[in-house]
Design goal:
Elements: H1 3-27, H2 33-36, E1 47-48, E2 60-65, E3 69-74, E4 79-84, H3 86-89, H4 102-132, E5 139-144, E6 153-157, E7 163-167, E8 173-177, E9 180-181, H5 182-191, H6 195-214, E10 217-219, H7 224-227, E11 228-230, E12 235-237, E13 243-245, H8 252-262, H9 264-271, H10 275-286
Parallel strand pairs: 2-6
Antiparallel strand pairs: 1-5, 2-3, 3-4, 4-8, 5-8, 6-7, 9-11, 10-13, 11-12
Amino acid sequence: MKKGALFFFLGCMALGYLASRVGVYSLNDKFLLSHITLKNSPSTTSLVNEELPKTLSRPFFYLDQGSQMYAFKSEDGEYVLKLIKQHRLAFFKIPSSHLLASFLQEIQREKEEEKLNKRLRLYESCKIAWNELRNECGLVYLGICPKHNIPIPLTLYDKLGRKHTLLLDSTEFILQKKGELIAPTLNKLISKGDIEGAKKRLDQLFSLLLLRCQKGIFDSDAFISKNAGFIEDRAIYLDLGGFSKNGRMQNPRIYILEIEKISSKLRLWLNGQNQELANYSTDLINQLQ
């Protein structure tokens, strides 16, 4: 084989290999152990429950991803383990950045500060969830800013079914009760003709929204169709990333408008599913007046 043809062949092989790796990476929702491994974190109070649930010693299987975390479900389907996307919060510092022009150094400082603030906002939101909405979030364990050794390896199976193992103290994680999304839950009840059961679920959902507001907590990502759901006896928040303290939320004039806005798409959806439930959800809003 001529040298030119050999280089062409090897180049095609290299490109094919690279394309296959990129394809697998994409099919696997861009999951890598390095993406959830904690590199460093700002010095803050460790938010860790003392008793480690035995559930964490069993395998977890890929469930889904959000903008901030990967989610895995437990083998028995009772729990969800969330692992923070550390690569989304990390800042790559250019080596010898002090040699850069002053305006480039300023851009780098701003980017670094932006990443740090994003991480701290997430920590603060998780702290609010743990301290004030633990039951309302179905929280079992919160391991943020881990500062202790946990000698239990965590076993994960990714979206492609590949097995991964990492130590719990090398990552940041949240363990929650696994909830069922609102629409599937209500659809099941409607299909069975259990309208009273569906009304009870709506009561639980509106009580959850009201309680959060009355505690003076704002949710910047209040898209309830994907961020809230139900477990056996109550509605819970599935997403912990948008909470912040805001005393204005305790004002009835404010929280009525908030709940009305948050539930508007749900009430519109109910109009197409069951008119009795749609009317009931409107009544729940009116009862807040």
